[in-house]
Specification:
Elements lengths: L3 E5 L9 H17 L4 E5 L10 H13 L4 H4 L5 H20 L2 E7 L7 H10 L19 E7 L17 H10 L7 E6 L14 H19 L27
Parallel strand pairs: 1-2, 1-3, 3-4, 4-5
Helix pairs in contact: 1-7, 2-4
Length: 251
């Protein structure tokens, strides 16, 4: 059964979040194709993941020294209530990720990076060895498809003055790549200049913002219906850019 894990991290749950609207569009489109039985949703702002505790750290260090242990075997190696509680809070999130064919992450840019709610989830799921097959050493996430839908108040795409200030997309690419998600399975869609409608001095960029949002909407629909070639990544740049001829865009 095809499965989708949908994560939202925007603090704005009033309906004004661009990233939430775009991930909702992806989810509706995906469910129209695949049905609802394989769909799982987690709102990281409404139901936040707890920051890491000492028990997580001590358990993780012990597992690092011991070597690779599958998640199913970690519980038997916990020592004390604090470690057991830390693992009880971690294992369901690890299993959700492992069970998903596609992981959809909605993230606004906060202070040039991802929201704290998303970072807490990443810290929790990044447990040592959780995504490595103990027998083969291969990543269990190699075939997982990652779709990141990012919104940014300004312009951070290739060629923009603030391109080097983007610690959002490069960070997520590095984290999931390090956990074994194949580069060709990562997709990044951005909606830029989202503050242009609100901030007077950005008013001249409203057409750019509208074009970027329209491209992002088209991209998520295409990705949700698996209409894009597997090696293609759609990522509108800071000027509401067009898909590059080589089929790849960087943030």
């Amino acid at each position: 059964m095809t499965s989708l894990l949908h994560l939202d991290s925007s603090a704005d749950r009033s309906g004004g979040s661009v990233s939430r609207r775009l991930t909702a569009l992806f989810a509706r489109t995906w469910q129209s194709v695949h049905g609802t039985s394989g769909y799982r949703y987690r709102d990281l702002a409404a139901d936040p993941v707890a920051p890491l505790e000492s028990g997580y750290c001590s358990l993780g260090r012990r597992l690092e020294r011991r070597g690779l242990v599958a998640p199913s075997g970690v519980g038997a190696l916990t020592e004390g209530a604090e470690e057991a509680g830390a693992w009880a809070a971690t294992l369901p999130l690890v299993n959700e990720l492992l069970e998903a064919d596609t992981v959809l992450i909605g993230t606004p840019m906060y202070n040039f990076s991802v929201p704290a709610a998303l970072k807490a989830w990443i810290d929790r799921i990044g447990f040592p060895g959780a995504y490595v097959d103990p027998e083969t050493g291969e990543s269990l996430l190699r075939g997982t498809r990652l779709v990141v839908v990012a919104s940014r108040g300004g312009a951070y795409g290739r060629g923009t003055p603030r391109e080097a200030w983007d610690y959002q997309i490069p960070y997520l690419r590095a984290f999931f790549g390090d956990r074994g998600v194949a580069e060709e399975n990562m997709r990044f869609v951005t909606a830029e200049m989202t503050m242009a409608e609100l901030v007077p001095h950005l008013a001249r960029f409203r057409p750019v913002a509208a074009d970027s949002l329209a491209q992002a909407r088209a991209a998520v629909v295409a990705l949700a219906t698996e209409a894009l070639p597997s090696a293609t990544e759609l990522l509108p740049d800071g000027h509401a850019g067009k898909a590059r001829e080589n089929g790849r865009r960087d943030a």
